[in-house]
From TrEMBL:
Lyase in keyword set: yes
NCBIfam families linked: PRK05261.1-1
Superkingdom of origin organism: Bacteria
Residues annotated as domain Xylulose 5-phosphate/Fructose 6-phosphate phosphoketolase N-terminal: 3-368
Protein name, per record: Phosphoketolase family protein
Amino acid sequence: MATAQEITSLKKLVRATNFLATSQIYLKQNVLFKRPLKHSDIKPRLLGHWGTCPGINFVYANVNRLIVKHQRDFLYLVGPGHGFPAVQANLFIEGSLSHFYPETIPYDESGIEDICKKFSAAYGYPSHANPEAPGQILEGGELGYSLSVAWGAVLDNPNLIAACLVGDGESETGPLAASWYANRLVDPATSGAVLPIVHINGYKISGPTRMGRMSHEELDLEFRGLGYHPIIVDDELEQDVYEQMAQAMDLSYQMIDDIQTRARNGEDIVKPRWPVILMRTAKGWTGTSEFNGEKLEGNCDSHQVIVNKCAKDPAHLQALNDWLASYKFDELYNIDDNGNLQFDADIESLIPPKQLCCGRQHLSYGGEVVRALAQPDLKALSYGPETPRGTRGLSMYKMGEWMRDAFKLNRDQRNLRIFSPDETYSNQLQAVFEETSRAWQWPIESWDKDMSRDGRVVELLSENLLFGMLHGYTVTGRHAMFPTYEAFSQVVSSMADQYCKYVYASQGVHFRKPVPSCNVVLSSLLERQDHNGYSHQNPSFLGAMLEKHPDIISAYLPADGNSTLTYTERAFADRDKLNIIVAGKKDLPQWLTLDEARKQTKDGIMVWDFASDDNPDVVLAGCGDYVTQECLASLVLIRELLPRVKVRFVSVTELNSNGLGSRKFQEKPWRMDDIFTEDKGVVFNYHGYPNTIKKLVFDYKGSHRFRIKGYEEEGSTTTPFDMGVRNGTSRYHLVIDMAYKLFQQGVIDETQHVSITTDMLQRLVEHRNYIKEHGVDPKEIENWVWTR
């Protein structure tokens, strides 16, 4: 139980941080309020969000108390989107800002002036949590991700507790709602714990929240149903809210410690009932309670900047004067003759040892703690050089074997996970279950397969939850993969964008080092979603991500199993990246030896000599495994029809927003002519939307020669080959397009062009009639074999 002295200390620390948060929002000078405010002290643009700040400060102080008391690692994640003045106030008082920014934010009055003047100012500090701030592991502007990121951070960090403040507005988002289910996935014996604290201040920007209008009984029932032990703190109860919160934090810590101790002593903990604190405090607590007859404190009107005309209106300025004076900040610090700043002894008693301060928490700096993976031997896993070209195999199964061996090699490091929002079996990664299993903390029945308390595969049907856990796991220095159905990856497009923003912003921060890559694997591709139908056909995640920073995002589209292995190896060796690997899960021809695949992985683009002629008349290119098969099939066809025509085949396996191939390849623009010739027509068959490639080759001087094929948003329940037919990416369409290019260039005459086009169109008609009658593709399609 908290002592009276501890309660006094908590109240003083919250007073101090509330003052500093307010000062950041309003003041450009007189930031310590040494004299009554003047209009000239006020910033010309008042930006920020006051309403959530008092709750953030209140929780931060209580987290500090637990750190000091138990000397344990804590992360503090702030879910409410725009409460950075509160976060920054605490980072200043604990000394973390001065540690990392000794020149610009020294621990003195000038440091306070810096954070006040620059908050929400041009080239200053954002209004939400950000990587430039110590101790932060996510961009805080977009709501809904805090709790899932917290769960990911504590995985395999057994001594860590992630205190996660969840806003009641944030709790209405889909990602946050799904994040409560992570209690089914985290093993208390080997991982840390998340302490969720839901801040029920009752309001969003202009209206009430769902939880804000729920009774204590309703809240209790909801969270018990989710599997938690709810602890309610309410500032309208008779007991002092500071005492309530300290008791709630103590009880939560005891519950976490009890669950972990029993699990680590060998007890099988089924359905661990983790604590959750449901904290009701007024929105805008301690600010101006009302103004001009309007209720501010405890209302949505306190959400952003209240009394916002202080620079011109005397009544507004007086209200701010009274507000700042209420904190009696001058009683809470001293500045000696040398300018050294020291806070009140009670406040100092709540500042943790330097290495345990939330802003200095080493696990929030993943680049400092990362350990490279021991990489599997690709020679042992690959299709060997004796494998005939065109032999069918499974790319995703090869990736599963790579992951299996990686789990085995890194067993003692415990720094590798799969986060799979769809079944691992479905995406052909089941080889991993030879080494590990799926994590599950709730009852496991005797007939359940591949499930255990400490499995390395985290599987639950929520893309939002698992991508957030992936984020938390990688930015704290570990390695992971996120395999999902291609069609549903767009669910986390915005989350992936936020991850990339975090990485990009981190690269400009001197105290952050590169973190392991975030590896998204897209499988169950549109070309083989013939049975699931149109709803499962959507490659738009690729296009969306390829708009982003080329240094951070790369898309890898390996053409076969060996290429999938080399790109998997490369992805897990990368740092500060979001890698997208696109690989089909059905059997497809295998084209490259391991050495050839390594060579292609280096440049991301390669002429396949075994399929190409010297001095070509036309160039055919493929990007994607299914479309590559169609390219090679079209080569066989056109050589049968036009044996004197010379064709070059180009395989493209890497894309980024700068264009085709790797960054190293793109550094020499003339190499595009080396690959695609200087003047020949090009037919480009792409796995995704054609506009993606059109944009990537727009700046290439030879782009006018390209005929780009791809998914045209045509699909239904049909046969596998008919998916290509419907979108113009089939072998027959490619022959038609190559014949047209050859005719344009005068290589063949009009008679030959018309003859070939008519032949291909007739084959398409015959194919359609065949599948409508028989329900399957013809044998010559199903059993097609590569011949040269």
